[in-house]
Amino acid sequence: MFSFVSKRLSLMMMTKVCCFQRNFSSALPPLVPVKLPSKMETHFWYVLPDEVKSESLLSQYSELLSPREKKNLYHMQGDQFKKSALLARVLVRTTIARYQTNCQVNPRSLKFKKTIYGKPEVDWENGDKWCPPPLHFNISHTSSLVACGVTVNVPIGIDVEEKQRRLKNKILAFAKRYFSPDEVKLLTAISDPEIQRQELIKLWTLKEAYVKAVGRGFSAAPFNTFTIRARVVKMGGFHHFDTQHSEASEIVVESSDDPENLTRNWQFALLDLAGSHYAAICIEKENSAGGEAGVPMRLTVWKTIPFVEDERVSGTGAVVPISGLIKQL
Amino acid sequence: MASVTGTSACMTSLSCSFKQTQGRISSVNSVSLSINGKSFPSLRMRSAPRFRVSCAAKPETVDKVCQIVKKQLALPADTTVTGESKFAALGADSLDTVEIVMGLEEEFGISVEEESAQTISTVQDAADLIEKLIETKSA
User: Fold this and answer.
1) Cβ contacts (< 8 Å) between A219 and chain B: which residues?
2) C-alpha to C-alpha distances, A49 to A52, A70, A205, nearest whole angstrom
3) CB B114 to CB A219 under 8 A?
4) Keyword set for this entry (chain A) (predicted)?
5) What is the CATH classification number for the domain harbouring B69?
6) Which residues pair with residue A159 across a beta bridge?
7) Cβ–Cβ under 8 Å, residues A33 and A131
8) CB contact under 8 A, A165 and B95
9) Closest Cβ opposite residue A204 in set B95, B102, B118
10) What is the span of the domain harbouring residue B14?
11) Which end of chain A has fewer CB within 10 Å, C or N?
12) Residues B96 and B31 grouped into a single domain
């Protein structure tokens, strides 16, 4: 009985401490809070660095970083790159901070750690101990777009790449070096070099997203040991998905190392984002028993400038599904 | 000790003879060395990155890696790339990194396993791995 009482007291105290940190920065307005995504729902936030022009805002953003993050930033070369690296840290901190429903969390106070495989996650222990949501996140950035995906209960991996990205190596040589034989076959069959390049970049983002979702590092799932392909799924209901056709394409992953087909647990979406990027999202399906076919990924997308403006862009021209079963909210 | 080759400045690591020294050097600007038992006064380096004292790759190897990295990342000519440079800090994303690995494989005639590729974070790491692979190949 005693331990229950003291536990309750310390919970109340910690909650108070947690809630007192409202004025984390007198200059910055509070973040607009958001409800956690529900099961099988994915939230996707992105920032366009070119839209963040204010030097004073960027300077305030820098103040949100941990000493180590600031040090890493200091050592980075190239202004564009430095800016997108800064925005990546700001985006992940502010995004996670938004989901605190019990009390406000200072994005500056969030601590991060890595799993034994090197995947970043929130370290709730030292920070705001009593408000931990079971959220998963993953970030990806290019110099022109910074993104953060969020899920609850299931792992997520994302990757973004500029649509115009050119390889330094020859496309097929690259594919032969890194992709699976089936994927090489598919790419080789494309005669138009520009289409071939686009398909390679799309495939790359999907493979990256998968490896990041699995979270065991590049070497645990070498790219050439699994194949990602789009599979046509005939659906009964017309308006179930974003595509108006009665056929939708589902993206699946097959592993040559994995005859058990544990790869049936993963769900993918591939988007054309902001007209400039391919964005791939990979999440684990919650209930993998049997693996329900044809369940879409429920996706909400926001374009944001943290503390300044948030715009929900899912369902607009900024988010165009390319493949995968997606339902935009 | 810096050797400047061509237009790119590439710092060479200290060679094997310094293996006798104590572990890692922690301070940024001053280095104190003990060579073969004799200790030397602190050497002040003007803008030195941390030196890793290890049995390191040949300067030519490090230099070639620097060149391949600069080319892949399309870095401006005046960018300093040294053995200590981290790929991540130079702006390399995962796609750049695998392209760099591919470039290194072609240049040096080696094959890099994913496990090894994952451990590379600096130019020096890459150069050391390359030499190890070359050595293993010719053994």
Assistant:
1) 113-115, 117-118
2) 5, 18, 20
3) yes
4) Transferase
5) 1.10.1200.10
6) A280
7) no
8) yes
9) B95
10) 2-53
11) N
12) no
Shared domain check, B66 and B134: yes
User: Nearest Cα to A67, choosing from A108, A104, A115, A118?
Assistant: A108
Total count of domains within chain B: 2
**What's at A307, amino acid-wise?**
F
Average model confidence (pLDDT) for chain A?
84
Residues B70 and B42 in one domain: no
Q: Note whether A62 and A31 are within 8 A (CB).
A: no
Tens digits of residue pLDDT in B98-130:
999 999 999 999 999 877 877 888 999 999 999
Same domain, yes or no, for B43 and B90?
Answer: no
Q: Are residues B37 and B83 in the same domain?
A: no
Kindly determine whether residue B114 and residue A75, on different chains, have CB atoms separated by under 8 Å.
no
Do the Cβ atoms of A169 and B102 come within 8 Å? yes
Asked if residue B108 and residue B123 are part of one domain, the reply reads yes
For A151, the enclosing helix (H) or strand (E) is: strand A146-152
**Residue A228 near residue A205, CB atoms below 8 Å:** no
**Can you give the pTM of this predicted structure?**
0.79
Question: Which class for A260: exposed (0-12), middle (13-18), buried (19 or more C-beta within 10 A)?
Answer: exposed
Residues of B assigned a catalytic role = 93
Strand partners, A293: none
**What does the alpha-carbon distance between residue B17 and residue A325 come to, in Å, rounded to a whole number?**
61
Q: Which two tokens stand for residue A76?
A: 């980075």
Residues in B touching A177 (Cβ below 8 Å) = 102, 105
Name the packing angle between helices A181-188 and A171-178 (round to 10°): 160
Token pair 């030519």: residue: B60
Count of C-beta atoms within a 10 Å radius of residue A293? 12
C-alpha to C-alpha distance for A91 and A137, rounded to whole angstroms = 11
B110 touches chain A (CB under 8 A): no
Q: Is A32 strand, coil or helix?
A: coil
Taking 70 as the pLDDT cut, the residues of chain A under it are 1-27, 101-103, 125-132, 234-247, 258-264, 287-293
Give the long-range contacts of residues A234-240, CB within 8 A, separation 24 or more: A235/A294, A240/A296, A240/A327
**Burial of A128 from C-beta contacts in 10 A (0-12 / 13-18 / 19+):** buried
Please name the residue of chain B whose CA is at the shortest distance from the CA of residue A77. Answer: B90
**Same domain membership, residue B96 and residue B29:** no
B68 and B84 both lie in a single domain: yes
Is residue A212 within 8 A of residue A257, CB to CB? The reply is: no
Considering only CA atoms, which of A147, A117, A110, A149 is closest in space to residue A132? Answer: A110
Which two structure tokens, joined as six digits, stand for A267? 């769900």
pLDDT band at B77 (very low <50, low <70, confident <90, very high): confident
Domains of chain A listed by start with CATH number: 41-236+246-328 (3.90.470.20)
